[in-house]
Model the fold of this input.
Amino acid sequence: MLRTMSQPMVRLVERWLPNAFIFAVTLTFVVALLALGITDSGPVDVVRAWGDGLTGLLAFMTQISLVLLLGYVLAHTGPVRRLLVRLARVPRTPVQAYGFVTLCAALASLLTWGLGLVVAALLSIEVARVGRERGLRLHYPLLVAAGYSGFVVWHMGYSGSGPLAAATPDSFVEEQLGGVLPVTETIFSSWNLLAVLATVVVVVAAMGLLAPGRGDQVIELPEGAALAEDEDVELVATTEGPTPADRIDSMRLVTLLAGLLLLAYLVIWFVQEGFVLTLDIVNWTFLCLILLLVKSPRELGRLVARAAGNVGDILLQFPLYAGILGMMTATGLIQVFSDFFVSISNETTLGLFSFLAGGIVNFFVPSGGGQFAVQAPIFLDAAQQLGVDPAIVVMGIAYGDQWTNMIQPFWALPMLAIARLQIRDVMGFTTVTLLVTGVVFGVTMVLASL
Done:
C-alpha cells in the first residue's frame, strides 16, 4: 500500500522538480517577495540583505566541502573500501538492502550529521554494486533515498546544534533562561530517546515497503559509479627509472608522520574537552585516518583529485542559501513566521507548533544552528509565559529542522554529488519519509507536552 501511495509522488517529482540550482534561485525570489509583501522592508533593503548575506556561510561552506571531499577520499582508501564491501554484503534481499542502508545512515547521523551523509552515499553505492553481483534487482535511486532518509534523525543526536547551543555556557539560551539547559533534558531525555527509536524503526520499515514490485521499473547502479579499485598509477615513467622526487612521492613515511601528528592533536583534544564532536573535529578525524591509511603522497593526491569534482554544487549553491538566510533575518521574516505560531499556541500545543514552525523556517533557512539562533528566543519566551518546559520547544525546533530536510535539497547536495544523482531522482521517496516521520515527531511533541 505504501509503495502504491508513493508512486504518484515519485512520478510528480521526477517530472516537475527542477535542478537543485533552479530550486535555490526560485526560493530566493519567493523569499524576496514574501519579505516585500509582509514586512516593512523595501526593494533596496531586501536586495541589500540578500547581497550582504551571500558571504554568511563561507566558513560553513568550506567545512561541508571538506566533509564531502575527505569522506570520499577516506572511503576510497584500501582498508575502508574493504570494510564497506563487508558491510554491503550483509543484506541478502532487496528489502533488507534498503532497510540496512537506512539504519547505518541513521546511526552515523546520530553521532554526527557529516558522517551520516558520507556513510549514506558511499554505502548506497557499495550495496548497489554488491547487489548487482548477486543478481538482486535494486533500485539505485531508492537506495540513495534510503540513505538520505536516515539523516532525518540527526538533530536528535549527539551533534544536534540546537540542544548543544542550549547546553553551552554563556549562550543566549543561558542568558534568557538564567541557566543552561543540559543535554540530559533534551537529547538524552527519555522521551527523545524513545522518539529516536520509533523514528528509526518507522523509516527503516518505510524504505523496505517502498521496494519495487516484480513489474515495477528498476534503475540499477550506473556503470562507473561504484567505488573505484585501488590503482596507484605511476605519473612519471622514464627509461632511467624513478627519480629521487618519484621515490619521495611514493614514501609512506611522509603521510604517516603527518597522520601521527594529527592523531596526537585529536588525543589531546578529547582528553581536554571530553567526547565533544565539532564539524572541524570530524574533518580532522577523517584527514587523520586518510593520512594513516594511504600508501603514499602520490596516492593521496590522486584520491583528492578524483574527489574534488564532487564539491562543485556546494560551492555554487550554498551562497544562494546564505543570501536567503540574510533576507529572512534582516527583514524580520523569520520572526513574522514564528510570532504567528506563538500567537495561536497554548501550553499543550506550543511544542507541536514549535515543530511545525521549525519545519517551515528550515525550508528557507536550512542551517540548523542559524535557524535555532533566530527562532529559539521567540519560542523560549513563549514557553516561559505559558509555563512550558523549555526543553520541549528546543527539541521541537530541532525536530522541525531535520524533518523538512527530506524535501529541501540543501543537505542532499553533498550526498547526491557522490551518488551522481539529481534531487528529482530521490525526492519522491524522501517525501514518504517526510510524511511518516511527521506523524512520529508531531505525536512526540504532543505527548511530551502533557
